[in-house]
Amino acid sequence: MKKLLKLIGLPAALLLSLSLFACGEAPQEKKAEEPAKTEEAQAPAPKEEPKMVKAGFIYVSPVGDAGYSYAHDLGRQAVDALPWATTKFAESVPEGADSERVLRNMAREGMDIIFATSFGYMDPVMKVAKEFPDTKFMHCSGFKKGANVSNYFGRIYQARYLTGLIAGSMTKSNKLGYVAAFPIPEVIRGINAFTIGARQVNPDVKVHVVWTKTWYDPALEKDAAKSLLDAGCDVITQHQDSPAAQEAAQEAGAYCIGYNSDMSSFAPKANLTSAIWNWGPMYVKTVEAVRDGSWQGDQSTWWSMQDGVVDIAPMGAMVPDDVKSLVNAKKAELMAGKDTVFAGPIKNQAGEVAIAEGSTPDDGALLGMDWFVEGVVGTTN
């Protein structure tokens, strides 16, 4: 028996040892797995990176012109200052084929939203928007829209009206000069609002209009202003991008009213005030909507003095206190939402009632305005 045990003892011991090793191994594996499962359950979910917004801007004139593009670029800078936004701009982009090329290149670069800031960019925007349905487009001052295209502008006519009150109060010749770019509703509406304001304080005033058919041409703008000064106008205003008309007025010893930004530094002895833009609030709010997903296409947005997008610059020291008080009172009404600039009765150039007493044109009628009010000397072409 001992001999038999001796013969089988070694394998049995080995089997016993293997059996004991196997029985002891499973708990060790289980203990090793449990902490791993616990750690995995406690691990925090990865944080989602905040969405960055890339915004492109296209300007029709140089950003250093102190005018229209300069004002838009100040708005772009407000967007660029946001920690989650980056911007790019192209300046002095002609309307037409050149703008189409620039729009397309910006879309290819992955811009989330592109702001086209001139009226003549409208058709190129509509064409390029169809090619890039995931890119959002905002067109300034136009009226065409699409699934990924909305348009925007501000009620600058409110500021024009206030500057008209000043001009009508300051003129001695009762002749006001208006250097204007193109005969489109945006410009015509501003001329009308300016004239309405001027004639409210001085019914004998006439507003003489000269068209330059350009947004930015300092030499041509100055020549146009000189022609109005030679015709006896003693207050010059403008819908142009440079301060050239302001300089012409000061050189002639006349008064002037600027546009787009505060132009008093270019004609400190002559500048009464300026109708100004403040695009920052609008641009910031728009890119915020892109970021949070609330931006919508096929919309029209028209910002007012209440929104802080349009205003007038500080009035010059030459403006009498009673005129300043009148203008500030009318501005307070506009700031409170009481917009009666185009409240009837309003007559057209032919002396016919174009807006009846007790009525006010809706935004569609204002956006399509193609006629001059009584008191304007000039044609809409």
Walkthrough of the structure:
With 381 residues, this protein is α/β, with parallel strands linked by helices. Helix content is 43%, strand content 19%. The chain has 11 helices and 15 strands. It has helices spanning 2-42, 68-80, 97-108, 122-131, 156-170, 185-201, 218-230, 244-251, 280-292, 321-335, 363-367; strands at residues 53-58, 85-90, 113-116, 136-140, 149-154, 175-180, 206-211, 235-239, 255-260, 271-277, 300-303, 310-312, 346-347, 353-355, 376-377. Strands 12-10-9-8-6-7-15 form a 7-stranded mixed β-sheet, sandwiched between helices. A 6-stranded parallel β-sheet has the order 2-1-3-4-5-11, sandwiched between helices. The protein is globular, with a radius of gyration of 34 Å.
**Which secondary-structure class do the elements indicate?**
alpha/beta
- How many domains would you count in the coordinates? 2
CATH topology of the largest domain: Rossmann fold
CATH superfamily of the largest domain: Response regulator
The Cα radius of gyration reads: 34 Å
Distance between the termini: 129 Å
Q: Please state roughly what percent of the residues sit in beta strands, choosing from under 5%, 5-15%, 15-25%, 25-35%, 35-45% or over 45%.
A: 15-25%
State the total count of DSSP E strands.
15
Looking at the structure, what is the overall shape?
Answer: globular
Helicity level: 40-55%
Low-confidence residue ranges: 1-41
Name of the CATH first level of the largest domain? Alpha Beta
Q: Which CATH architecture of the largest domain is right?
A: 3-Layer(aba) Sandwich
SSE succession: HEHEHEHEEHEHEHEHEEHEEHEEHE
Lateral arrangement of strands in the main beta sheet: 12-10-9-8-6-7-15
Number of helices: 11
What about the largest sheet?
Answer: 7 strands, mixed
Overall pLDDT score? 90
